[in-house]
Structures are given as structure tokens and as C-alpha cells.
Write a structure and sequence with these properties.
By secondary structure, the protein is an alpha+beta fold. The protein has two domains: 15-66, no CATH class; 70-103, no CATH class. 19% of the residues lie in helices and 19% in strands. It contains two helices and six strands. The protein has helices at residues 28-33, 72-86; strands at residues 15-17, 25-26, 36-37, 45-49, 54-60, 65-66. Strands 1-4-5-2 form a four-stranded mixed beta sheet. The N and C termini lie far apart (60 Å). The mean pLDDT is 91.
Length: 113
């Protein structure tokens, strides 16, 4: 196995081939699926595949922390920002799609703000 280096001598950190990670380690996506986040911990190991061109970092599950929940004020600010992206500056109509940045106006206005 080309990428099997559990001691980290060759790659600097413990390295495993694709789909051969030991239990107790997970990628950021796998942590996110469990409603967890790395929480500032260092990378514990890595997965490598495709001749070393693809790398996925692994974190310890036991040191992971729960995902943070957005506050009501943060959600309100996000809603306001997304509504602004759907509001045409020319006709002031709120559209069901984001206004294209290329034209700067909704499709009804023809791109001339």
C-alpha cells in the first residue's frame, strides 16, 4: 500500500489509504454529519489517494465539539442579506432568484439599472 504510513515517518503525520482510516477519526464532512466540528484541534491524520493528489484531513471524534447554533440576530441578518441579493436596484422588486451580478438588474429590467 503506497499511502500506508501510520507512524508519520514518510508524510509527517499518520497517513492512510482511501477508506482505510482507523476508528475514532473522521473528516470534517463526517463530523458535520454528526453535528460536530473540529473545535480547534490539530489534524490527527490524513487520507491520501489518486497518487497523492487528493488529501482529506482526519480529526479525533472524541475531541470534537458540538456545532454552534446561530443566534436569532444572526439568522435575521442573514435573511436580510439574502433578500437584498434578490431585490432589483432598478425596479425595487423582490425576485425569486438572485439578481445577476453581471447585469446588475433583474431579467425583466433587461440588465440596465
Amino acid at each position: 500500500m503506497v499511502f500506508y504510513d501510520p507512524t508519520g515517518e514518510r508524510y509527517g503525520i499518520p497517513t492512510y489509504p482511501f477508506k482505510m482510516a482507523p476508528t475514532g477519526l473522521a473528516t470534517v464532512r463526517q463530523l458535520r454529519a454528526r453535528n460536530l466540528r473540529p473545535g480547534g484541534q490539530d489534524v490527527a491524520a490524513q487520507l491520501m489517494w489518486r497518487k497523492g493528489k487528493r488529501v482529506a484531513y482526519l480529526y479525533r471524534i472524541d475531541l470534537a465539539q458540538p456545532k454552534r447554533v446561530a443566534t436569532a440576530a444572526q439568522l435575521a441578518a442573514l435573511d436580510k442579506a439574502l433578500t437584498a441579493r434578490r431585490t432589483c436596484p432598478a425596479c425595487r422588486a423582490v425576485k425569486p432568484y438572485y439578481i445577476p451580478r453581471r447585469t446588475g438588474a433583474c431579467l425583466d429590467c433587461g440588465g440596465t439599472p
